[in-house]
């Protein structure tokens, strides 16, 4: 039979209130010194515990999102692109598109910060309590292909359909064969048909050119139809940041 906790600190740890166990003595001395009421002292203990738990939860969500690096909105240089809808981008950071389970498409040539903005939105979403997954489109396809060999495709598919926000990076950078295109369609269709969550796609191709990705105009049109139903398109035009020696991811 498990021994029951005896001391006050042991009892607190039994409740997994580890910050409280570490901080209660210092806060108790502070309360006595400042003549705080029991209620105020207890409120401080709870506030600190909640703050620590929230920070740990954010760290866990960021870790599970699998960002290759952390990017934020304030790191983005809006003065560089020749064309960019700053107002629309700032509106996206209210994250209501996640609540509405919309699709956000960043379209533009390489080196203009599409991936940076997508990751910044994902990071902001993690801080607001949303489950996020960042992945290269090619990784989605290779993962599902590998899962076909051991009949774990349903499990692998859930990895891409369950998050509140899925970020599909670099759609269109590499052409897909018919089987690969069908696998990507499965992810997109499942998120659309069952309103799984919001999705961000970064691509260097306009919708009219998506047939080049899938080598199947009918499949490409089926995907575009789903994406376009509840979507916001952010077009970015200009010269690559790399031309001036700065290398943002994208």
Explain what this protein looks like in three dimensions:
It contains eleven helices and five strands. The protein has a five-stranded parallel β-sheet, sandwiched between helices. Helix content is 52%, strand content 11%. Helix 9 (178-193) links the parallel strand 3 and strand 4 (198-203). The protein has helices at 8-14, 18-33, 38-65, 86-92, 96-99, 114-127, 137-149, 153-161, 178-193, 211-214, 217-229, and strands spanning 103-107, 132-136, 165-171, 198-203, 231-235.
Map the helices and strands:
Blueprint: H1 8-14, H2 18-33, H3 38-65, H4 86-92, H5 96-99, E1 103-107, H6 114-127, E2 132-136, H7 137-149, H8 153-161, E3 165-171, H9 178-193, E4 198-203, H10 211-214, H11 217-229, E5 231-235
Parallel strand pairs: 1-4, 1-5, 2-3, 3-4
Helix pairs in contact: 1-2, 2-3, 3-6, 7-8, 7-9, 9-11
Q: If strands are numbered along the chain, what order do they take across the biggest sheet?
A: 2-3-4-1-5
Tell me the number of structural domains. 2
**Gyration radius, to the nearest Å?**
23 Å
Query: Uncertain segments of ≥5 residues (pLDDT<50)?
Result: none
Mean pLDDT rating: 87
End-to-end Cα distance, whole Å, is 57 Å
Name the helix and strand elements from N-terminus to C-terminus, one letter apiece.
HHHHHEHEHHEHEHHE
Tell me about the largest β-sheet: 5 strands, parallel
Number of strands: 5
Beta-strand percent range: 5-15%
What's the CATH H-level homologous superfamily of the largest domain? P-loop containing nucleotide triphosphate hydrolases
CATH-derived architecture of the largest domain: 3-Layer(aba) Sandwich
Q: What's the CATH topology name of the largest domain?
A: Rossmann fold
Oligomer: single chain
- Helicity, in percent? 40-55%
Structural class: alpha/beta
